[in-house]
What we know:
- This protein is α+β, with helices and mostly antiparallel strands and 386 residues long.
- Helices cover 68% and strands 11% of the residues.
- It folds into 2 domains: 5-216, no CATH class; 233-384, 2-Layer Sandwich (Alpha-Beta Plaits).
Amino acid sequence: MPLSATLLSDNLWSNLSLQFYNARLEAHYKKHIMPRVLTQSRLALLLIAMMYELYGILDYLLAPQQLLGQITVIRSATTFTILFIFTLTFFRVFRKYHQAILTFALLLSAVSLLWKMTLIEQQLFPYYFTGLLLLLFWVHAFYVLNFACAFFATFAIVVISVVSFFALFSFPLHEAISYLIVLIAAFSISIFSGYIGEKSDRSLFLREKELDRERYVHRERSMHDELTGLPNRLLLLDRIDQVILDASRNNQFCVGYFLDLDNFKIINDTYGHAIGDAVLLEASNRLKAAIRATDTVARLSGDEFFVLARDIKNKEQALAFGHKLLRRLSKPYKLSGKVVSTTLSASVGACLFPYVGVTPLDMIEKADHAMYQVKLSGKSGIAMAK
């Protein structure tokens, strides 16, 4: 079922966080992107785990031997945690808290890398600094964090990194500034691209849902009568097909009623087509009020209607239900308190099915033929198809 026109019209979002102000629309958006988020999160987590293990090569090549054990523990614990988070992506808890979990994974990776950097010599700093840049671009490349979480996480990484640089290492001013510029540039590119990406994604989501809504409206219009809103012949044939299958499977009988209004031409000739349309609308409302929730009322054309009734026990019950419809249609018609007609009634043809060789068109034709026999015998009555 497409989103309602009212919900789609309330599509304003915050320019800062990019979240829709309408909580229901925001929930629909999150549900819409969840399959992509799950897939990309799994790839992202596997890649960051692989990156950490590849960085282990640097540990063995560059780190002091006396600290290698401690660095290995940090690296292994981080990799294990990331793989555990990867496992969580297959459980419901991740769907609910995926933004917080992924933010934690990113911050954990950055903090553990900075922790390792505190243990190395200053001349080895550039080799590990690239890891921080890769973490910032990880946010941009996989686009798994929303803008608000991505901004918070990457900004925290930059702040912690800058503090660590100046607190733990004694770089010359020009070198410290160069590292800072590169780090801020990577942060800016990652955040800007994330902002543009999410904004475009939300715009695309709205456009897709609007197109879904338009397709749904066009499909409904093509299968419903414009005046009464009832199913038309095309939708009726589809409903009859389904009812035939259900009735055969459950060993039930159903009935199709072909109804043609008697003396309707007099109303059109006397009052005009606008009043005639109002009478047809009233007739359709009476039929809808007379049927059960599982039944169907359709307008075939002009003053011809069709009622599809499920689970009718026998011929006597079929006739009783047909007389109920006839009584509803035969009551006086009033518009704006003025009686328009007291002679309007209906001729009803009923066909009990399923039977051998039944098809929707054949059943409608049998009911139509029975209705015509009522017309020939004086109108305002009901006849069963033979």
